[in-house]
Amino acid sequence: MIEAAEGSAILFPIWQEIVVGAVAFGLLCFVLMKFVFPLMEKTFEARVDAIEGGIERAERAQEEANQTLEEYRRKLATAQEEAAAIRDEARADAVAAKEEILVSAREEANRIIAAGHSQIEASRQQLVRELRGEVGNLAVDLAGKIIGQRLAGDADTTATVDQFLAQIADETAETSGAR
Amino acid sequence: MTDSAMVLAEGDSHFPPGIDSFNFADWFSGLSDTALTHMFTTITFGVWASVAVLIVFFLWAYRKPQIVPSKKQWLAESAYGFIRNTVAIDLMGKKTGVRFAPYLATLFLFILVMNFWAIVPGIQVSPNSHIAFPLMLGVLSWVIYMFIGIKQHGFVKFMKITCVPPGAPWFIYPLLVPIEFLQNIILRPVTLALRLFANMFAGHLILLVFILGGFELLNSGNLLIQGLSVFSFAMGIGMTFFELIVIALQAYVFTLLTGMYIQGSLADEH
């Protein structure tokens, strides 16, 4: 069909080849554009969905983790506050108990001292009472003795009186010392 | 037996290679004088094989798509995703881009595999070195971007957008409008087709020059000249790698330009 002598012949298409090319390319287009490439687009979309879904899931998990952490921190802070409060309370309790003990001890001491005083007073009263009785008896005794000795001699009487007075003075001194 | 092999076997009688190196005989000689001539040649075999390879690979690789892709699925997705993302979505935005990505990806893969026959040992000629296939694709791109433009804007407004660039002074329009019309409406499919065709044609010719030249030197009978054939073959191998770049680049350029034309038809501005 093409003559070798005509160089321009290469620029004129052979119609049979156009037919072959068109049919072959048409077939290729039909198969690839109908059965392959749309499927690829679908796969691409599914892949994008999968990736975006994965990111979303990861974000959700992250958020959840953050929330848990926050909650945990809050609980920890609360627990620490509670512990501090308990400690303070205990300390206050201890101080109060100590005060109480001190107060009661002081009261006890006072009471004991007061009791001691009253006892001493009572003993003194009793002593004075007894002494009075004794002094009476002694006076009577002395009087009896003086009367008896008058009969015997003056010198002995003077001695007896001196002795008695010394005795009295001693007792008085003793009593006022105890006071 | 392919014609390339025939050429190689006959050796010196075909050197230097000319345009008759691109004529491939019918596989079934009975068809030669009927309308079915040129239907079953090395060239059409390349076309059908390209389509078969692509269909089989993609249907096999994408039989059961998974969210987490297997290796073959990943490969298939990368081939589509490359054009989808770097051409369709980059040019037209996400929504429109995804609409045109399947066609552009199909176009790219078809041209790429067709071009690849240029360096497949035993074939070493791309069907795209016959103008029929690039022209068919170029015209198809033209039909698509014209159709989209007219559908989008209506015929008159689309012509105005395409042929009347805004902002030029009025007296320049008589000159500008015909040029724009010629450039955007007439020449686009032609340049698309010629660029691809010429690259593949020249690529095949260059490989032929160095490989046939090597055999030519080998047949010379002079030991010194025979030794030089090594350089010729080395150049042939080097040019094959160079051809690999051209193969991918031309497929990409064709797709990119088609994408740009479609985008231009959708846009409101010139």
From TrEMBL, chain A:
The keyword Ion transport applies. It is a single-pass membrane protein. CDD domains: ATP-synt_Fo_b. Pfam families: ATP-synt_B. Keywords: ATP synthesis, Cell membrane, CF(0), Coiled coil, Hydrogen ion transport, Ion transport, Membrane, Transmembrane, Transmembrane helix, Transport. The chain crosses the membrane at residues 18-37. Residues 48-89 form a coiled coil. SUPFAM superfamilies: F1F0 ATP synthase subunit B, membrane domain. GO terms for cellular component: plasma membrane; proton-transporting ATP synthase complex. The keyword Transport applies. InterPro entries: ATP_synth_B-like_membr_sf (IPR028987), ATP_synth_b/b'su_bac/chlpt (IPR002146), ATP_synth_F0_bsu_bac (IPR005864), ATP_synthase_B_chain (IPR050059). One of its GO terms (molecular function) is proton-transporting ATPase activity, rotational mechanism. Gene3D superfamilies: F1F0 ATP synthase subunit B, membrane domain. It is found in: Cell membrane. It comes from the Bacteria. Component of the F(0) channel, it forms part of the peripheral stalk, linking F(1) to F(0). PANTHER family: ATP SYNTHASE SUBUNIT B, ATP SYNTHASE SUBUNIT B', CHLOROPLASTIC. F-type ATPases have 2 components, F(1) - the catalytic core - and F(0) - the membrane proton channel. F(1) has five subunits: alpha(3), beta(3), gamma(1), delta(1), epsilon(1). F(0) has three main subunits: a(1), b(2) and c(10-14). The alpha and beta chains form an alternating ring which encloses part of the gamma chain. F(1) is attached to F(0) by a central stalk formed by the gamma and epsilon chains, while a peripheral stalk is formed by the delta and b chains. Belongs to the ATPase B chain family. This is ATP synthase subunit b. It comes from Glycomyces harbinensis. The lineage of its organism: Bacteria, Bacillati, Actinomycetota, Actinomycetes, Glycomycetales. The gene is atpF.
Automatic annotation (TrEMBL), chain B:
One of its GO terms (molecular function) is proton-transporting ATP synthase activity, rotational mechanism. The chain crosses the membrane at residues 39-62, 100-119, 131-150, 196-218, 230-253. Signal peptide: none annotated. Keywords: ATP synthesis, Cell membrane, CF(0), Hydrogen ion transport, Ion transport, Membrane, Transmembrane, Transmembrane helix, Transport. The keyword Transmembrane helix applies. It is found in: Cell membrane; Membrane. It is a multi-pass membrane protein. GO terms for cellular component: plasma membrane; proton-transporting ATP synthase complex. Belongs to the ATPase A chain family. NCBIfam families: ATP_synt_6_or_A. HAMAP family: ATP_synth_a_bact. Key component of the proton channel; it plays a direct role in the translocation of protons across the membrane. This is ATP synthase subunit a.
